[in-house]
Design brief:
This protein is an alpha/beta fold. It has twelve helices and twelve strands. Strands 3-2-1-6-7 form a five-stranded mixed beta sheet, with helices on both faces. A five-stranded mixed beta sheet has the order 10-9-8-11-12, sandwiched between helices. It has a two-stranded antiparallel sheet with strand order 4-5. Strand 2 and strand 3 form a beta hairpin. Helix 4 packs parallel to helix 5 and helix 7 runs parallel beside helix 9. The relative contact order is 0.17. The structure holds 5'-O-[(R)-(carboxyoxy)(hydroxy)phosphoryl]adenosine and zinc ion. Zinc ion binds next to helix 6.
């Protein structure tokens, strides 16, 4: 089965083509095409992602990104058939708020052969609703012109599959498994007792980890997105053998639950830098101390969650799992404290938002969500 997957939940426009053969979870996958266009440069000017701008950029990028993925995939073509006027009208109705995208898609259809694709998958949440909508409406319009079904996929479930993917297979997972999902909008610990079963064990009560990284970076006058910038500064400090000369609080680290709170660390940084010039040495030291505090809390809560659930597998996923210190800390934690636990970290290329993960998650679904598919900004991993 060839799946075309579309991801537009935040600031990357991504389309992938993945061929899956055999039955999940023992299927073999081939990534035929994978195109991502990042909007980071545009959002950097504003210091963050504005949903209306993200939506506009997705609308402009979708057809070029689709063409790039299709060109890479070299799928066998079906004979070209002219579209019925009703089909064109249906496409225009679906994309009535993005008429330029409707024009671009209809023009694309005239120019390109119809590829052999069996299913379209699209992220329907969680994420920025205007950005999700443009992806969903585009998926529906493509499904209409090609006459193929569209299935909605949870973005966070995609991040889990990213971490389990070795380029050709999904790893054998021993359940129960814990997934620590850390991104710009989410920080949660999820327990999987089987494929497709997700129970929320803990979550942030305020800021997501990535959000805290981005906000602290802004206080330190570092560009958006702040996570990688903080990481770079902190790693350089560690490489130079320096220890952080400040220490920030570790909120809720000893609380009996698996919930998190990161706004306290952020506020502590704010008070530390308030109303004064900070030197570049101090900035690096703050980045280092901030990363240490966040990582300590993440590891402590995972330790607790393993004790509660008896987990045999740990999966890290989401944009923040690109962080070198966090990855190293979890590898050390498993090696020294839980050597029987299987640890899965996403490969660098699939750490941030991409559409390969959406195609992988889609192959596990047999139910198809039809035209009533709607954007769900706050969609939970449990499907609620
Ligand atoms: O999963 P993702 O690409 O998008 C969302 O679904 O939110 O995550 C983006 C987040 C941003 O907050 C970004 O600053 C953070 O991931 N991030 C990092 C690193 N790379 C990306 N945070 C810390 N260290 C990094 N190396
Ligand atoms: Zn994400």
């Amino acid at each position: 089965m060839v799946i075309l997957a579309i991801e537009t939940s935040c600031d990357e426009t991504a389309i992938s083509l993945v061929e899956a053969t055999g039955e999940f979870p023992h299927a073999t996958y081939e990534v035929l095409g994978d195109a991502v266009l990042s909007q980071i440069e545009i959002h950097r000017e504003y210091g963050g992602v504005f949903p209306a701008i993200a939506k506009r950029e997705h609308a402009a990028a979708l057809v070029p990104v689709l063409e790039k993925a299709l060109t890479e995939a070299k799928l066998p073509p079906l004979p070209h058939a002219a579209l019925f006027p009703e089909t064109k009208e249906a496409v225009r109705a679906l994309l009535s708020r993005e008429y330029e995208l409707a024009d671009a898609l209809l023009d694309f259809y005239e120019r390109r052969n119809t590829p052999v694709i069996d299913r379209i998958a699209v992220t329907y949440g969680p994420g920025l609703e205007p950005a999700l909508w443009v992806g969903i409406n585009f998926a529906k319009a493509l499904g209409t012109i090609w006459n193929i079904p569209v299935v909605g996929i949870n973005h966070m479930e995609g991040h889990i599959f990213s971490s389990l993917f070795d380029g050709a297979h999904i790893a054998d997972v021993t359940f129960p498994a814990l997934a620590l999902l850390i991104s710009g909008g989410h920080t949660e610990i999820v327990c999987m007792r089987d494929w497709g079963s997700y129970e929320l064990v803990g979550q942030t009560r305020d800021d997501a980890v990535g959000e805290a990284f981005d906000k602290v970076a802004r206080m330190l006058a570092l560009p958006y997105p702040g996570g990688p910038e903080i990481s770079k500064l902190a790693e350089a400090e560690r490489l130079a053998g320096r220890t952080a000369d400040i220490s920030f609080p570790r909120p809720m680290i000893t609380s009996p639950d698996c919930d998190f709170s990161f706004s306290g660390i952020k506020t502590a940084v704010l008070y530390h830098v308030k109303d004064r010039e900070i030197s570049s040495e101090e900035r690096a030291s703050i980045a280092h101390a901030f990363e240490d505090a966040v990582t300590d809390v993440l590891v402590a809560k995972i330790r607790k969650a393993i004790d509660i659930t008896g987990a045999r597998t740990l999966i890290l996923g989401g944009g923040v799992s690109a962080n070198t210190h966090i990855r190293r800390s979890f590898s050390n934690f498993v090696a020294t404290e839980r050597p029987d636990l299987a640890l899965f970290l996403p490969p660098a290329k699939l750490t941030t938002d991409n559409a390969v993960m959406i195609a992988l998650a889609a192959y596990t679904k047999d139910s198809e969500k039809g035209p009533d598919l709607t954007a769900r900004g706050n969609l939970s991993i449990t499907g609620q």
